[in-house]
């Protein structure tokens, strides 16, 4: 429980930086003619600081679900496989939250989604597109996050094991 709370607290803080950069990045992707600094400035001028934090709550909720960790010692390759499965499952389960986050971040100022209400965004997608809309992009998301989980958890566990072995050999 301590580790989950610490990881969740870390994600809350990390999202303070990650969410504004994600908002600017997504708007740059749909508006290729604008420069990044111009997009950033427009958000601040038109919506204030809250415009940069659209989707913060849904992003934190999504990230907190990813912070579950396996609690027993396994080989590095097993950690990698567990990371891939855990990442894929988390990606599938949190896809509706990612859809809501994207809708909120890309919403036009003054629209209902621009308020940042996650449940309202989810309800709007459900009404207009149903279950298919809530899980739009689920397979590419699962593939990318599974691959990331495989690489990152496997590399983390291998590095940790290596450092523990080196530590045992040091006088």
UniProtKB/TrEMBL annotation:
It is a multi-pass membrane protein. It is found in: Membrane. GO terms for biological process: mitochondrial S-adenosyl-L-methionine transmembrane transport. Its main location: membrane. Keywords: Membrane, Repeat, Transmembrane, Transmembrane helix, Transport. InterPro entries: MCP_dom_sf (IPR023395), MCP_transmembrane (IPR018108). GO terms for cellular component: mitochondrial inner membrane. Solcar repeats lie at residues 74-162. One of its GO terms (molecular function) is S-adenosyl-L-methionine:S-adenosyl-L-homocysteine antiporter activity. It comes from the Eukaryota. It catalyses: S-adenosyl-L-homocysteine(out) + S-adenosyl-L-methionine(in) = S-adenosyl-L-homocysteine(in) + S-adenosyl-L-methionine(out). Belongs to the mitochondrial carrier (TC 2.A.29) family. Mitochondrial S-adenosyl-L-methionine/S-adenosyl-L-homocysteine antiporter. Mediates the exchange of cytosolic S-adenosyl-L-methionine, the predominant methyl-group donor for macromolecule methylation processes, for mitochondrial S-adenosylhomocysteine(SAH), a by-product of methylation reactions. This is Mitochondrial S-adenosylmethionine carrier protein. The lineage of its organism: Eukaryota, Metazoa, Chordata, Craniata, Vertebrata. The gene is SLC25A26.
């Amino acid at each position: 429980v301590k580790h989950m709370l610490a990881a969740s607290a870390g994600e809350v803080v990390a999202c303070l930086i990650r969410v504004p950069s994600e908002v600017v990045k997504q708007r740059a992707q749909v508006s290729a003619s604008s420069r990044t600094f111009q997009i950033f400035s427009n958000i601040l001028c038109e919506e204030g600081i809250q415009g940069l934090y659209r989707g913060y709550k849904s992003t934190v909720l999504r990230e907190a679900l990813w912070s579950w960790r396996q609690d027993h010692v396994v080989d590095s390759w097993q950690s990698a496989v567990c990371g891939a499965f855990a990442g894929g499952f988390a990606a599938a389960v949190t896809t509706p939250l990612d859809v809501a986050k994207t809708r909120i971040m890309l919403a036009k100022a003054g629209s209902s989604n621009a308020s940042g209400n996650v449940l309202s965004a989810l309800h709007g997608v459900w009404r207009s597109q149903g279950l298919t809309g809530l899980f739009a992009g689920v397979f590419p998301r699962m593939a990318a996050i599974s691959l990331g989980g495989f690489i990152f958890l496997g590399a983390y566990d291998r590095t940790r094991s290596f450092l523990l072995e080196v530590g045992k050999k040091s006088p």
